[in-house]
């Protein structure tokens, strides 16, 4: 078994019997090196890892204090102890000052006194080494933590910033993003309007990360469908016991987002009571927790979202005009997906890549024919509906490329390039025009949807539609319907 090495001491004295006495007192617990003068002692220091020095003051050549002063320069962590029979105060004071002496031991010393001094000195040596190591580690750790934090912030800024909002190069969204960028760094409330799922939350988040508040938190809440009680608890926070089942006080988003940004979506669905509460926050930054008497303040930035036109609601008396003006210092309208069909392909392919990775189902992409159908649809549910459709297609896909046969029926039945208001079968029913024209439009859509879904297998399509193959071909010719190129694997004729 190997035991830990003993701590090393250097004993310096010109009198051999003093050196022997010191060694006797210390050698059980310490590894003792000896030197008869400052020169020998210096050589010893150079060759060994010494933790404490016991040095006589009066020696031929350099004095103990002079030697220890040099040691202080070169090996500052080594603990220095001086032993002297001379009690001149001026000597001692200059020794302590110049050599940074840890302890002064007068002659004659007692062996226990020397042992105690040696133990303390080694303990001090270890403490100061640990301290040095820890402060180095702390310095390293804090700079590593700082750089980690900075990297994370940068990733957030880049990952959640405006560049993350996908769109085609000439998308109408470019102007919207431009306006949002310009307003981002002005600490003013902004109102984002647009249908559900158009990307308002995405834009609000990008505005936060492009603002001076980017180091502070961003929170988002959709008020639509929440009762006043739920909203109050969520936004103001709630005191313990203020409502049944509230076991502990919870802070709300107004407090959590202090000095950060809160995106409050669906403000058009706020009740009159909640409108008053929000006005107080928007105007004074003041609110009170549910169940609390005292008012709290917050310095959050409000970005609000609305599906309906708030100005119309103000005119109808359904929304407070003072709140509208408090929230809409700047107003940015986000267009629906049907107004930017060029974005559909970019979004669909990016969604597919994400979904394919998330669900572990590798696919290469979406065929041009499928993209044409997707671009032609009006997407009333905007990005959420697009994501659902791509998910469905991915789940059903059997090959590496997602073709139009995977698209769901309402989308296949829509007429690409047609007035969006007239795309859906139900809209054909209520549209105006001659009965024959409307029936033919329906017929054409049903034919195209069936053939696309059956990958242009005309035998199967004719069978499903109760037509002869000749009858089907005649109808295809009449409507000018043809398979997209390249044709599907199952196409015949
Ligand atoms: N341009 C875009 N690029 C990438 N993803 C987008 C884009 N726009 C929206 N999304 C995604 O679409 C989904 C819906 O967007 P978001 O929640 O921002 O819409 P919203 O307008 O705030 O909807 P709602 O008003 O219904 O809450 C989110 O998953 C969002 O990440």
Keywords:
single chain; 493 residues; alpha/beta; Rossmann fold; Helicase, Ruva Protein, domain 3; 4 domains; five-stranded parallel sheet; 16 strands; elongated; binds adenosine-5'-triphosphate; ATP binding
Shape: elongated
* Rg over CA atoms: 41 Å
CATH superfamily of the largest domain: P-loop containing nucleotide triphosphate hydrolases
Q: Hetero groups bound? A: adenosine-5'-triphosphate
Number of helices: 20
Beginning-to-end CA distance, first to last residue: 89 Å
Mean pLDDT: 87
CATH class of the largest domain: Alpha Beta
Strand residue percentage: 5-15%
Spatial sequence of strands, sheet with the most strands: 2-1-3-4-5
Counting DSSP E segments of at least 2 residues, the number of strands comes to: 16
Describe this structure in words.
With 493 residues, the chain is of the alpha/beta class. It folds into four domains: 8-129, Response regulator (Rossmann fold); 162-335, 3-Layer(aba) Sandwich (Rossmann fold); 340-408, Helicase, Ruva Protein, domain 3, CATH 1.10.8; 432-493, Arc Repressor Mutant, subunit A (Orthogonal Bundle). Helices cover 49% and strands 12% of the residues. It contains 20 helices and 16 strands. The strands form five sheets. Strands 2-1-3-4-5 form a five-stranded parallel sheet, with helices on both faces. Helix 3 (64-74) links the parallel strand 3 and strand 4. Helix 6 (173-184) runs parallel beside helix 7 (200-209) and helix 13 (342-359) crosses helix 14 (368-376). The site of adenosine-5'-triphosphate has 17 residues, from helix 7 and helix 15. GO terms for molecular function: ATP binding; sequence-specific DNA binding. This is Two-component system, NtrC family, response regulator HupR/HoxA. Keywords: ATP-binding, DNA-binding, Nucleotide-binding, Phosphoprotein, Transcription, Transcription regulation, Two-component regulatory system.
